[in-house]
Amino acid sequence: MSATVEAGVVVASAYWPESDVDTVTAVTGFVVSAFNPLVAEVAQRCMSAYDGEVVADRTAIVLASVGGDRTSADVVAEAVAAGTRVAPLLFFQSNPNAVLGHVAARWGLAGPLVCTSPSGEAMADAIACAELLFAAGEAAAALVITAEVADESGGSDRAEAVLVMARERA
Amino acid sequence: MADHPVHITAAAARTAFGRDHTRLRADGFAGVPAFAPVTRFPTEGRRTRHAATLPGAPALVDELVGVIDEVYTGPKSTVPLLLAAHADAGNRALAAEVAERTGVAGVPRVYTGACVAATSAVADAATMIATGRAERVLVAAGYLVEPSTFALFDAGRALSRDGRVRPFSAGRQGMLLGDGVAAVLLERAGKDPLARVAGWSRSGDAYHVCKPKPDGTGLARAITQAMTRAGVSTGDIDYVNANGTGTQFNDAAEVAALRLAGLDGVPVSSTKSVHGHALEASGLVELVATVLALRAGELPVNSGYLGADPHCELDLVVDAPRRTRVGHALTVNAAFGGANTALVVGAA
């Protein structure tokens, strides 16, 4: 059964982890941090769970993360503080758009790409972003992703993805 | 969609040219670049030393509060703020402090989508007003040159080594970073508006993690959709404020997009050539520059031009600002991941 949101219908969803021994597939070119592979993993699971069709040019990707890729940021800050060279691969993964470029290319999704740090509940705000895209006519569907990696205060890596269709297309 | 008009009723940008628009309009529009050796932090061991920075070591939160207070002095308790800044674990605290100090109704999120973060915020703010979700929305964005990003762009060999940014020019070497903090107030109705956000659209390339799609089709789609929303055709666009980073791949792909959209005969310049690349804030700084150009009827120079690149055949504004009436202008931005935005700005 599809869940509904204000202006759209959730037609597929995925989570990470699904179990205590769940794993993440590495993504070529992304190093050091679990953040980007986590985003790609949950996107893969969500898109694989949907057996319908999406219109490539009309499908957006929205990524919301409160903490973002804090691992990569810390590695860069440590290198700068130590006066050592920053690894070139960290250049492109220093912003969240890069992994969305990977997801977009993998699934052929050529709609808008939106990345945010939400002030409130991440999935609710990410879906609010998707609804604005629907309201503007900029997209008819959105792959909506939230991801957080563990920080020094504890917690664990976690991610969620939903594929939302604008109501008129559902 | 109800399609209420979206007016820009106030705009402010702080760049290396200062905290008001005087020098940006005078020197920046004339093509005098603001790049200088960085003194804010050490640059030993980097391939370049240059950026365009404000004096000293300003604090991002102070600058954001400053531009927000500058564009709207009325009661802010019912006005939402959409903020754009670099992806950072401290963004929730940044948003909370800006909200507390300015008194805005709230900051639902910080847009972090690299070089289209600010224009994505503008697009959402415009949608909120056009669809009746809000009557008034503040948008602010900020980036101040700091050592981590400088080191990253240096490691990625993205920075120009000759101290200049030369968009679309033969001999261009890349980009340089620049401070940029900007805000606009968008309103459904407003007294004496500066301009209108007549059209907006976003698209993706679905191509690569950091390279733009060389054929320009993704960006061209955003441009044509924004013009369609604005109800204008190519002949109505009098100026294009280009993304124009000064890098080989990006500039060539952008020219391909402008050609596909039928805009390669329209006057074009990239003001990044004088104020540098303000990353997440770049689109808002450039929107303000576009509004200034439209209001003044004067197109800013595409600085640093050395000569024609056969892959970048455009009607570039070089040598001196060009006087012309601007009814509609287009400002485009593109980012890592193949994210593209286009905003059509109309005269009020």
- CATH architecture descriptor name of chain B: 3-Layer(aba) Sandwich
Examine the secondary-structure arrangement and name the CATH architecture of chain A: 3-Layer(aba) Sandwich
Approximately how much beta-strand content do the residues of chain B carry? Answer: 15-25%
Question: Uncertain regions of chain B: pLDDT < 50 for 5+ in a row?
Answer: none
Strand content of chain A: 15-25%
Helical coverage of chain B, percent range: 25-40%
| Number of strand segments of chain A | 6
Largest protein interface? A-B, 61 and 62 residues
Number of structural domains of chain A: 1
Instruction: Note the main sheet of chain B.
Output: 11 strands, mixed
State the assembly state of the protein chains: heterodimer
Strand order of the largest sheet of chain B: 5-4-6-7-1-8-15-14-9-10-12
CATH top-level class of chain B: Alpha Beta
Outline the structure in words.
The complex is a heterodimer of chains A (170) and B (348). Chain A has 170 residues and is α/β, with parallel strands linked by helices. The longest helix of chain A has 15 residues, at 122-136. Chain A has a six-stranded mixed β-sheet with strand order 1-2-6-5-3-4, sandwiched between helices. Chain A has a single domain (3-169), classed as Thiolase/Chalcone synthase (Peroxisomal Thiolase, Chain A, domain 1), CATH 3.40.47.10. In chain A, helix 1 packs parallel to helix 4. Chain A has helices at 35-48, 70-82, 89-92, 97-107, 122-136, and strands at residues 3-4, 8-16, 59-64, 113-118, 141-148, 158-166. The two termini of chain A are 12 Å apart. In chain B, helix 6 (217-230) packs across helix 7. Chain B is an alpha/beta fold and 348 residues long. The two termini of chain B are 21 Å apart. Chain B has a single domain (1-348), classed as Thiolase/Chalcone synthase (Peroxisomal Thiolase, Chain A, domain 1). Chain B has an eleven-stranded mixed β-sheet with strand order 5-4-6-7-1-8-15-14-9-10-12, with helices on both faces. In chain B, 66% of the residues are buried. Chain B has helices spanning 22-28, 60-71, 91-102, 117-130, 147-155, 217-230, 248-260, 272-275, 282-296, and strands spanning 7-15, 36-37, 50-51, 81-84, 109-111, 136-143, 180-187, 195-204, 237-241, 267-269, 298-299, 315-316, 322-323, 328-335, 339-347. In chain B, strand 14 and strand 15 (339-347) form a beta hairpin. Chain B is globular, with a radius of gyration of 18 Å. The mean pLDDT of chain B is 97. At the A-B interface, strand 3, helix 2, helix 3, helix 4 and strand 4 of A face helix 3, strand 5, helix 4, helix 5 and strand 8 of B.
